[in-house]
């Protein structure tokens, strides 16, 4: 019965067509609803480029980048302490992560911002002294709250990356006479980066949005900027949409950046 | 003066004693092959020679220096990692699993040590590295990443990486054990030519044929101790100890 020219009939995926039609219908309905909604769409671009909004944008970027950069440096230090042979350093790292990862970011920001209530002065004996309410501005409080929380997460990410590198790599580095710091810099960290970058990119995107919590203590970031504009013209939704558009722009740029970083460290 | 002089080397992991007093002398230009069943402590001993493992007692001198230690007032004081690193510069090591740096090309792997550790100018280091790749027969693989190379090619690059440091001593830790059978030969060929050129080598291996053809001294280890040693024709062809005879009977 074998015949060489029997026609092959591919399986028809009717379910896919039904599913696709349902999704298109829902999206169409949503679109129609927003077109009919009481939103003055024409005003959104104006708020998008509003002077206050742009100031908020700049502050959001500066806060997110500074907090993340500080968190990465601190995270590497805490991760190295966590992996150290020194038991005191190990326990300090465990406690640090426990504390700063365990508390809500908003609470941490509020604590830093209100530090002057309990410490009038901040001083390092014979080196430095300042009034707390001069030193801890809204920016500094937000930076500390966001950055310290993030550094606890970064410490765990960096630790995962460092332990993912084959111990044979360290032995090979030692066998050509590399010192521990050279081994870390040239052999271990570059390989750990493959593991470190994806979750760090994820966290940075979270950080960009997390800066909005600084609006609570009066720091002029995007959400606070939107509120400021809305308080003058009462177009609440329009200004929020303008701010939302800026978040999407920032997050998209961060995603593209992460893609290139992953490619850079994915060599070999 | 002997390149390696080990006396009464002992080492335990927890309650297990892996080395129970090993003595070994390797003269300049000698090739010593260490044979024995797995778990005999051969690799551990090799790793003690460049202080990847710390010995518990005894002593190991390489080129007149106690590796990993400083002799002071009749005691051996353990050195800091940074200072041990300086001692390791001229002790090459080749690993069973190659351990090439996967994020660097073959050439970059070889250049890394001379440039980063010895401070050789990059142009000079690259020229030297290309010559070394030529010598192990891989000149055309200079820009290949390790994962693009076969096991035998990776191991030859690893040997070139060690040679780039101009070692006085080369340690080989089962260099062909992780290779497919048809790739063993190309690695052994490189090692034979190194031996012929007068490199001082300690080779932990199961390749009896290699030991027979290039070893000046064959050392047979069981349970953390050397039970028999001597020239290959004595240890391999006319073993005196029953343990050696049993082992060789199984290997052939």
CATH H-level name of chain A... which superfamily? MetI-like
Low-confidence stretches of chain B: none
What is the C-alpha radius of gyration of chain A, as a whole number of Å? Answer: 26 Å
Care to count the β-strands of chain B?
Answer: 12
Ordered list of secondary-structure elements with their pairings:
The complex is a heterodimer of chains A (268) and B (252).
Chain A lengths: L13 H23 L7 H5 L2 H32 L4 H16 L2 H9 L7 E4 L3 E4 H4 L2 H27 L2 H9 L4 H31 L11 H12 L2 H30 L3
Antiparallel strand pairs in A: 1-2
Chain B lengths: L3 E10 L2 E11 L4 E5 L6 H8 L7 E6 L2 E2 L2 E4 L2 E4 L2 H8 L2 E4 L11 H13 L3 H14 L15 H13 L5 E5 L7 H16 L4 E4 L3 H7 L2 E6 L2 E6 L1 H4 L6 H10 L1
Parallel strand pairs in B: 3-10, 3-11, 8-9, 9-10
Antiparallel strand pairs in B: 1-2, 1-4, 4-5, 6-7, 11-12
Helix pairs in contact in B: 3-4, 3-5, 4-5, 5-6
Can you describe what's shown?
- The complex is a heterodimer of chains A (268) and B (252).
- By secondary structure, chain A is an all-alpha fold.
- Chain A contains 11 helices and 2 strands, in the order H-H-H-H-H-E-E-H-H-H-H-H-H.
- Chain A has one domain: MetI-like fold (Orthogonal Bundle).
- Chain A has a two-stranded antiparallel ribbon with strand order 1-2.
- In chain A, a hairpin with a 3-residue loop joins strand 1 (121-124) and strand 2.
- The radius of gyration of chain A is 26 Å and the shape is flat.
- By secondary structure, chain B is α/β, with parallel strands linked by helices.
- In chain B, 37% of the residues lie in helices and 27% in strands.
- Chain B has 9 helices and 12 strands.
- The longest helix of chain B is centred in the C-terminal third of the chain and has 16 residues, at 181-196.
- Chain B starts with a strand and ends with a helix.
- In chain B, 49% of the residues are buried.
- Chains A and B meet through helix 8 and helix 9 of A and helix 2, strand 8, helix 3 and helix 5 of B.
